[in-house]
């Protein structure tokens, strides 16, 4: 069972009220001689979207897998909803695991099951006594909540576009009404319009369902648009956790290259333009949008 900060066990329908639903302390992960994390610390605040960034192979997915218990760390401790997930009893763990949902890279849907059946998998696992009719109804609701048309319930993953597959994976992640949502590169492989739509969906779900979101991404637009804070993994640790504007002030080579490189600056300009467009009734904003929207001299 999950626990509140005083160590009291939470009832099945009671929400976690502590400040930090995820606390990682002194985490070390090694594969043979390869040390991926060394003494890594991270605290995720309740109700935030935390972006997790870092170069390829810095261990973002390994960190997520460690938190959800799929990767046994070499050392350190991880608490989710106030309860250590390291070496805990799988039976007792159910009270923690049914409070999170995970969207893996690529969706990880079962190809032989329809979208609706995929969403029903965790429902069957955690609530085996639910009547099939009610289970179908819950699955249908989650599919629609994830922005898919109702007809998608009966489709197989192979019949869906990349964006629809992500939404179907999200519907499954939401099956158990989680308080915590893990997203591993949700916008990878989507076109910019599909990616922006998925970002907005994530933000709406966070706000309406009161979710805490752990979001691994390389997508600078996602970081600027929807993340409350961003954790940067480098040198086997979380070297900074802060808002994007505050990270921009840090004098760290990778952070500067990432956020202040050409793609980082383009994402920043796009966000500034969006912000200005919300104030078009003010002449100074309208003027700035007009000037910034113009292509640079010499370019068509
Ligand atoms: N089960 C495993 N056995 C051996 N090595 C592993 C295992 N899982 C991950 N690794 C290694 O750990 C390192 C970190 O992998 P991880 O997938 O977490 O990186 P990442 O930051 O998510 O990268 P990317 O941005 O490319 O997805 C990689 O070098 C990977 O090869």
Q: How far do the termini sit from each other?
A: 61 Å
Distinct ligands, ions and cofactors found in the model = adenosine-5'-triphosphate
Poorly predicted regions are none
What letter string, H or E per element, gives the SSE order? EEEHEEHEHHHEHEHEEHHHH
Amount of beta strand = 15-25%
The overall pLDDT average reads 87
Bin the helical content.
25-40%
What structural category characterises the helix and strand content?
Answer: alpha/beta
Largest sheet: 6 strands, mixed
Number of strands: 10
* DSSP helical segment count: 11
**Largest sheet, order of strands side by side?**
6-7-8-3-9-10
**Shape, principal axes of CA atoms:** globular
Tell me about this structure.
There is one protein chain. The protein has 300 residues and is of the alpha/beta class. The protein has a domain at 261-300. It is 40% helix and 20% strand. It is built from eleven helices and ten strands. The protein has helices spanning 60-67, 90-97, 115-126, 132-145, 162-173, 192-209, 220-226, 244-248, 253-260, 262-277, 283-293; strands at 22-31, 34-44, 49-54, 75-80, 83-84, 100-103, 180-184, 212-216, 229-234, 237-242. The protein has a six-stranded mixed β-sheet, with helices on both faces. It has a four-stranded antiparallel β-sheet with strand order 2-1-4-5, with helices on one face. Helix 3 (115-126) packs parallel to helix 5. The mean pLDDT is 87. It binds adenosine-5'-triphosphate (ATP). Residues 31, 36, 54, 56-62 line the site of adenosine-5'-triphosphate.
């Amino acid at each position: 069972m999950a626990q509140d900060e005083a160590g009291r066990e939470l009832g099945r329908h009671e929400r976690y009220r502590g400040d930090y639903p995820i606390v990682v302390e002194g985490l070390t992960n090694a594969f043979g001689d390869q040390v991926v994390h060394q003494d890594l610390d991270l605290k995720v605040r309740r109700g935030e979207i935390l972006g997790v960034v870092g170069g390829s192979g810095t261990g973002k997915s390994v960190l997520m897998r460690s938190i959800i218990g799929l990767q046994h760390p070499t050392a350190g401790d991880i608490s989710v909803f106030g309860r250590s997930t390291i070496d805990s009893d799988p039976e007792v763990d159910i009270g923690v695991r049914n409070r999170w949902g995970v969207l893996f890279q690529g969706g990880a849907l079962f190809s032989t099951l329809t979208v609706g059946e995929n969403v029903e998998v965790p429902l069957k696992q955690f609530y085996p006594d639910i009547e099939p009719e009610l289970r179908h109804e819950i699955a249908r609701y989650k599919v629609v909540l994830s922005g898919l048309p109702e007809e998608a319930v009966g489709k197989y993953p192979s019949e869906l576009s990349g964006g629809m597959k992500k939404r179907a994976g999200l519907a499954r992640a939401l099956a158990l009404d989680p308080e915590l949502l893990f997203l591993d590169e949700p916008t990878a492989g989507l076109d910019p319009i599909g990616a922006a739509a998925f970002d907005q969906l994530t933000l709406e779900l966070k706000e309406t369902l009161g979710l805490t979101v752990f979001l691994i991404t390389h997508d600078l637009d996602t970081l600027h648009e929807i993340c409350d804070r961003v954790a940067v993994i480098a040198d086997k640790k979380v070297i900074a956790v802060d808002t994007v504007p505050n990270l921009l002030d840090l004098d760290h080579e990778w952070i500067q290259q990432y956020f202040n490189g050409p793609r980082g600056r383009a994402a920043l300009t796009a966000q500034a333009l969006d912000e200005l467009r919300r104030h078009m009734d003010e002449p100074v904003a309208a003027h700035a949008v007009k000037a910034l929207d113009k292509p640079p001299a010499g370019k068509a």
